[in-house]
């Protein structure tokens, strides 16, 4: 029987590439997004669209109920929706801080809480959370984003123990630098030029980070790894994918912090005079 995956943030980037990959590989896809009417996508027997904003619990419940009604069963959920609040922490407003966590952390938790009764009923299901290489290491000017992804890493790792006896798997996808709207339209860039002391650092480091986004890996590569996580039948928890994740994460694990921080500094602060 055809399996079904529900994806959050399927309008763009990794979510969209994953939607295409699963449809091509004979899965049903419940593609959820904030504005399906703007997606330009056509529904079919194996692809249905639902309105879902992860910060709106009613929309989460309605989308999940709609997908279960249409497909009968959901086998996997991909928590992909997210964005980066990036820049000078001191310049961020309380609203910007909250929105980062409401989306990346509480939004993911709300989708998981909504799907768990369905997964428990069937004693089966796979929860796949997209964290980031930035859920285990950090770069400058990403403090809010890293905080949200480190939270998701710890949350997901703990959750995988308690759900295993119920037949429910948790998987963590840790993408590296992926060429998507993450570095452009989706980014909430936070700065206040009146905070003059920060400006040389912001200018030099942001230029390097933006350039690395432009040279990122194709989102299809992440989609393939997500497919593997959903189908490999293993107990593996983490899947690092896309440079630099597969080599930077082991470096972080094995190098003394002092050396690791020196490598990060050398790579992103190179424009600083
Ligand atoms: N790109 C990278 O280098 C990278 C690296 C590591 C991890 N990631 C993670 O990968 C995930 C996908 O990002 P991406 O790179 O594919 O970026 P993207 O192209 O900007 O896509 C982000 C997706 O999330 C959706 N989204 C944002 N806020 C939402 C909300 N409140 N409710 C529902 N959907 C929402 C966006 O919807 P709209 O179209 O409505 O804006 C869009 O579909 C994110 O969790 C990101 O943190 C990305």
UniProtKB/TrEMBL annotation:
<comment type="similarity">
    <text>Belongs to the short-chain dehydrogenases/reductases (SDR) family.</text>
</comment>
<dbReference type="InterPro" id="IPR051911">
    <property type="entry name" value="SDR_oxidoreductase"/>
</dbReference>
<dbReference type="Pfam" id="PF00106">
    <property type="entry name" value="adh_short"/>
</dbReference>
<protein>
    <submittedName>
        <fullName>Short-chain dehydrogenase</fullName>
    </submittedName>
</protein>
<dbReference type="InterPro" id="IPR002347">
    <property type="entry name" value="SDR_fam"/>
</dbReference>
<dbReference type="GO" id="GO:0016491">
    <property type="term" value="F:oxidoreductase activity"/>
</dbReference>
<keyword id="KW-0560">Oxidoreductase</keyword>
<dbReference type="InterPro" id="IPR036291">
    <property type="entry name" value="NAD(P)-bd_dom_sf"/>
</dbReference>
């Amino acid at each position: 029987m055809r399996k079904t995956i529900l994806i959050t943030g399927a309008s763009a980037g990794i979510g969209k590439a994953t939607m295409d990959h699963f449809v091509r590989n004979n899965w049903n896809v419940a593609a959820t997004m904030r504005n399906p009417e703007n997606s330009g996508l056509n529904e079919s027997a194996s692809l249905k669209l639902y309105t879902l904003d992860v910060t709106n619990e009613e929309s989460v419940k309605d989308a999940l109920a709609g997908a279960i009604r249409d497909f009968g069963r959901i086998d996997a959920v991909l928590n992909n929706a997210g964005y980066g609040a990036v820049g000078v922490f001191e310049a961020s407003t309380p609203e910007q801080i909250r929105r980062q966590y409401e989306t990346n952390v509480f939004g993911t938790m709300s989708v998981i809480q909504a799907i768990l009764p369905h997964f428990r009923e069937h004693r089966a299901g796979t929860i796949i959370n997209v964290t980031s290489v930035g859920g285990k290491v950090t770069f400058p000017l990403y403090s809010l984003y890293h905080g949200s992804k480190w939270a998701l890493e710890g949350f997901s790792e703990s959750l995988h123990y308690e759900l295993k006896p119920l037949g429910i798997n948790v998987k963590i996808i840790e993408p590296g630098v992926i060429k998507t709207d993450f570095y452009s339209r989706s980014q909430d860039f936070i700065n206040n030029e009146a905070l003059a002391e920060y400006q040389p650092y912001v200018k030099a480091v942001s230029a390097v980070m933006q350039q690395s986004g432009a040279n990122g890996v194709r989102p299809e590569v992440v989609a393939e790894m997500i497919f593997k996580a959903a189908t490999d039948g293993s107990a593996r928890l983490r899947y690092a994918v896309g440079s630099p994740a597969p080599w930077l994460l082991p470096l972080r694990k094995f190098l003394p912090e002092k050396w690791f921080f020196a490598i990060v500094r050398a790579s992103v602060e190179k424009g600083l005079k």
